[in-house]
Amino acid sequence: MLEKYPMLPSLSRTEYKKQISLLRDKLYNEQRQFRKKKTSPLLLVIGGAGKHDTANTITSWMDPRGLSTYEFAENNAAELERPEFWRYWQTLPAKGEIGIYLGAWYNRPLSDQAYQRSDSVTYERYLSRIKTLEKQLTEDGALIIKLWISISKSEQEKRLHMLKENPLTRWRVTQTEEKQAQHYDQFKTSANQLLKKTSYPYAKWHEIKGDNTKHRMITAAQIFQDLLHSHQDKNSLLTKKLIPVAPKKNNNAYITNMKLDLEKHLEKNAYKNKLEKYRGRLHELSIESIKKGVSTVLVFEGVDAAGKGGAIRRLIVAFEAHRYRVVQIAKPTEEEKRYHYLWRFWQHVPTKGMTTIFDRSWYGRVLVERVEGFATTEEWNRAYSEINDFEKQLLENNTAVIKFWIQISKDEQLKRFRARQNTPHKEWKINEEDWRNREKWEQYEEAAEKMIGLTSTDFAPWTIVEGNDKRFARVKVIKTVCEQLEQTINRAVN
Amino acid sequence: MLEKYPMLPSLSRTEYKKQISLLRDKLYNEQRQFRKKKTSPLLLVIGGAGKHDTANTITSWMDPRGLSTYEFAENNAAELERPEFWRYWQTLPAKGEIGIYLGAWYNRPLSDQAYQRSDSVTYERYLSRIKTLEKQLTEDGALIIKLWISISKSEQEKRLHMLKENPLTRWRVTQTEEKQAQHYDQFKTSANQLLKKTSYPYAKWHEIKGDNTKHRMITAAQIFQDLLHSHQDKNSLLTKKLIPVAPKKNNNAYITNMKLDLEKHLEKNAYKNKLEKYRGRLHELSIESIKKGVSTVLVFEGVDAAGKGGAIRRLIVAFEAHRYRVVQIAKPTEEEKRYHYLWRFWQHVPTKGMTTIFDRSWYGRVLVERVEGFATTEEWNRAYSEINDFEKQLLENNTAVIKFWIQISKDEQLKRFRARQNTPHKEWKINEEDWRNREKWEQYEEAAEKMIGLTSTDFAPWTIVEGNDKRFARVKVIKTVCEQLEQTINRAVN
Lengths: 494, 494
Prior knowledge:
The structure is a homodimer. By secondary structure, chain A is an alpha/beta fold. Helices cover 52% and strands 13% of the residues of chain A. Chain A is built from 20 helices and 11 strands. The longest helix of chain A is centred in the N-terminal third of the chain and has 25 residues, at 13-37. The interface between A and B is large, with 50 and 51 residues.
C-alpha cells in the first residue's frame, strides 16, 4: 500500500526551474478550484527529514488564504486537560481549506518506538486511534495526502555538519534533531514499521527519497498535484444522496420492548426531599471530581417537550456556577457545516473537574438528521461507531459520559404543547416545526430505538427516563448522575 | 449616581404572584424584541447576596436561547497565560444575546478590599480597567445593567443558620460564604466603596434590599424591564451615521514629514548574511522568551503590495513551527460583526512563550474602515484610545507588541501590481479592490499618519519600514523584532 518513487534522472538548474514552474502553476490552479468548490477539506501530512523546508516551499507556491501549518510538540496546559486527540480536532481544516501537518499525529509513535519508550499495547492502541481519525475524516470527504521524506545516513550527517560549520546557521540544528541523527538506525526502523502499519487505502503513505532536493521537490509537488486533481475529478462525479428514511413500523422496537411504565410518579413532598438529598450528594461528588481530575459530560435527548430543559435546571443547582456549562444544540451554522459533524462537539469537551451539559447533542446525527434526511444513509449509519469512538476517548480521559433519553407518551406531549401555546412566556418553546416533528412520532421512535441499541456501551450506557411525571423524571435523572459519576470517580486513576 | 430603591409595602402571596406574572410577561416580550433586533448585546451584572437565586429566577422567566450565565473563580490554566481581562472578553454576548454575570469583574476588588489583600494602587488600577471595559462596551452599543443585592447582618445570619440546621440543605453553605459572613462588616464597607466608585453614567449600580425575597425579585425584575425597554426605545431612534471621510490633502502629514528615504537598499550578499544572522539571534531570543514567559505580538500594516507577506515569511523561519501562528485579517465575518470590533483580536492573544503575527490587524478600524466608511466617525475616533488600552493590557502581561508600517512609493506599488498580474501563481494577490484602494492613496496615507501619531506609545511604538527595496525592508523588520523583543525580555519579571 506504501507508494515509493524511483529517483528522477539528475536535472540541471534550468531544467529544474522549468519543471517546477509548470508544476506550481498546475498546483495553484488545482488549489483555486478546490477553494472555490468548498466540498472537502485537505490535510497534507509531511513527515521525515526536511519536512519544514518542503512545507515552506510548497506554501510559497500557493494562495495562503485558508492554508495553515501545524506542528505539535509537548502538550500545552489546555491540551493536557483533554483527550489526546482533542488538539488535532481543534486544527482541522474546513471544506475548501488546507491544513499542512508537520509530523502530524505520527511524531509520538515514531519516537516512542525509536527510543523504546512505550509497550506494544500502547503503541498499537495509538495507531488504531490514528486509523480511526483518518478513516472518519476521509469518509466524510476529506483528502489526506501523506508524504514521507527519507534521507540516507551519510546525507543527514553531511547536512548537520554543514549547518554546524557555519556560525550563521549553527542555530538551525536543534538538540532534538541532533539526538535523532545519533539514533539514525533506530528511527529508520521505526519509520519503516510506522509507514507500513499506517498506510491505508484511503490515506496512503508516499515515500520520497530526500537526498536530492530537486528530486524531492518535484516528486512532492507531482504527488500533491496528482492526488488533488484526481480527488476533485472524483468529487465532481459524486453527488450526495439525500434520501429521507421511509417510515417503517417496527414492532420489535427497543423502547416499545421495554414496556416503560410512563405512569410512574412522585408526590410533591417526597420529590422535594429526594431532590434536595441528591443535590447535596451531587455537590459532594462534584467536589471529589475536581480533586480526582474527573470531568462530566451529560447528554439529554428526547422528543420535544419531554422535559429536558426542566431536568437540567433542577440539576445544575448542585454545581458551582463556574464549574458547568449548558450547551444547547440546534441546527449547525454555516460555519459548522464546513467541518466533520463531530467537530463542533469537540469544541465543548470539558477540562478536568468541569461539567458540560448537552441539551441535545451529537445524537442529532442519528435522530433529526436521519429522519429529516439532512444526513445520507451512509452518513448516519456510520455515525453509531463514530459516536462510540468519540465517547470512548472521553472516557479514557476520565470523563463520565452520562446519557438520558426522556420518554413521554404522545398524549402527554399534546397536553404540553397546548399548555405552551396558552402561556405567553412559554410560547417560544413551541413552533410549527414541533407540530411537524410530532407527525413523524413513529419515525423518531424508531430512530431512537436503534440509537439506544447501538450506542449503549459499557462505558457510556443510556438511561431511559419515564417522563410523563416531571417530578419522577427529575429525581431519576439526578439520582442516575450521582450513581454514574461516583463510579467514574472510583475508577479514576489519579 | 448609585440608585437605591425604597422598600415596597409588604405583599401577600397572591398579590406577589400577580405582580410577578405581569412583570415576567413584559420582560419576556422585551427580550423577544431584543433578540429579534440584534442591535446590541446585554450584560446583566448581579452582585451581593442571593445573586444565584436572583439569576436563576430571572432566567427561568426568559427564553434561554442566546442567554448564558457566567461566574468567575480562580483563573484556569488558559486564563493564567493571558491578560487578566482576557477571560471576560471570551464570554461577551453577541448583539441580541444576554450574558448574566454573577459578581462579574467585581469579585476580586470586593474581597481584596474586604480582606485588605491589595494596596490602593493595584485596587485603583483594577477599577480603572473595569471602567474602561464598561465604557468601551456601552459606547459600542451594549446595555449593561448592574444590580447589587444587600442584606442585613441579622438576615444573613438567619439564612446560614437555617440552611445549616437542615441536613438536606447543609451543603449549600460553602466555606467561602461562611468566611464572608464572618467578615460581614468588612464586606459591607468594601461593597459600599466599590459601588460608589464604579457607578458610571453609562453603567450605574442599582442597589436592592434583599432581606425580603418578594421585594428583591419584584424590584430586580422591574429595573431590568425598565432599562431594557428604554434602551430599545433609544436605540430605535438612533441610526448609525456612516459617512465616508472626505478626501483631504494634508501637507503636514506624518509620513510625508518623515521624509523617508525609500531608496534605501541592500545588496544580495549582505542581505543573505544579515538575514541569517538576525534569524539566529531571533531564534535565541525566542528560546529565552519561553523561559521568561514572554509572548510576542507582531503587527504588519501597509498599503497593498507593500511586502507584508514576504517579510513575514522570511521571519518565521526563526521560530519553531508550533510556537507561532500567522493570523490574516480580512473583512469581519457576519459572526464577528455581532461583537465589539476588538473581540476577534482578543481570541488570538498568545499564551506565554508564543508568537502571534498579524498580517493586518485591529488597525483596520482606523485605516480601511475609516476610509471606506465602514465605521462611523465616532467609532474610528474612539478606536485610537481603545487600541492603546488593548496593547497596554498585552504589555502588562509580558507581551512584546511590535508594529510595522511598511511604506512604498506609489510608483513602486504600480510596478508590483503589474508584476502580479503577469505571474499566474501571483494573480490571487491582485484584484479590482486593490486598484480601487490605490485611487484612494492620499486618504489611506492620511489615515496612516494619524494612526501612527496617535498609537505610537512608549510601550508599543510603530516602526516605519522603507519598503521599495524588499531586501532592505525584510532585514529592518527582523532586526527590529530582535531589538524590541530583547527589551521586553530584559524588562520581564519572571
